[in-house]
Amino acid sequence: MPLTGPVDGEPAPGLFPAPELLAPPAIRGGTNRAVGRGVAAARSDDAGRQLTFFGAEAAEPAVADVAGLLAGPAEISVMGGTARLAVVVDDAWRVHVLVAELEARHLPTSWAAAGGGRHTVRTAYTRVLKPLVAAWLNGPAKHPPDAFHLDGRGLRLWLVAAGAVMDSDVLLRLGPAAHQRVASVGAALAAVGLPAVPESGPDGLAYRITGRRLLNRFAELVGDPPPTVPHTAWPYRR
Question: Which of 68, 83, 103, 109 could bridge 130 with an S-S bond, Cβ 3.0-4.6 Å?
Answer without folding.
Answer: 83
